[in-house]
Amino acid sequence: MRMTPLLCRATVTAGFFGQLTGPDIDVDGGNVLGRWTRKLANDSNVMVQSYFDYTHRLIPNVFEENRETFDIEFQHRIVIAERHDVIWGGNYRLSHDDIGNLGPSLAFIPDNDTVHLVSAYVQDEFHLIPGKFSLIAGSKFEYNSFSGFEIQPTGRFVWNPTPGQTFWGAISRAVRTPTRIDQDLVSPNPSTGAPPVLLGNKDFESETLVAYELGYRIKALAYSLDRSRRVLQRLR
Length: 236
Hints:
Blueprint: E1 6-17, E2 25-41, E3 44-59, E4 63-80, E5 84-101, E6 107-108, E7 112-129, E8 133-144, E9 148-159, E10 165-176, H1 180-184, E11 185-187, E12 198-199, E13 207-220, E14 223-235
């Protein structure tokens, strides 16, 4: 008999952040999450997860934000030919906000927006020499409302010459996509009639990070030592 666990969880939050100067920042909201998993076989399982989140934030005399986010994700893991551990899946997220531009210091123009994020991913962990040497390759493919299509590939190797030693290396590409702060923020608030000092750019592009990493780990009794070297290249 295959188990089909179902998880449901709900959370409500309320609080504030104190500031050195000025009134407190009020934050409240809540979310509900559901996750369903099913074991299809000894080497295969699926997961479907969805959540809804509501957040309210108020910075007195600056701005007020009401944000609603819906997210759904599917993931499937399967072992192929005993040596390939494959994970693939997809995700969709919708986020809508309403902004109250309350003060003269800044504003978001427009004062409401709905953004979409669609992504898919796949990863294959190939146990070339089981227990000794593995190659991991995969990529994430994404479309978002701010910068369009993005791709984030990664490749990694893991070598265990002895049970207590591990060498690893990786090359990966990561992306920080623009946000409304990058594209829609204006300061001061245009309602003041003052010329803008800070103006969001609708053509703001993603920041790209390419990372090269080498590492070594050794375990002796209850202690371990990690050494790694990472080289980063940031492009605009």
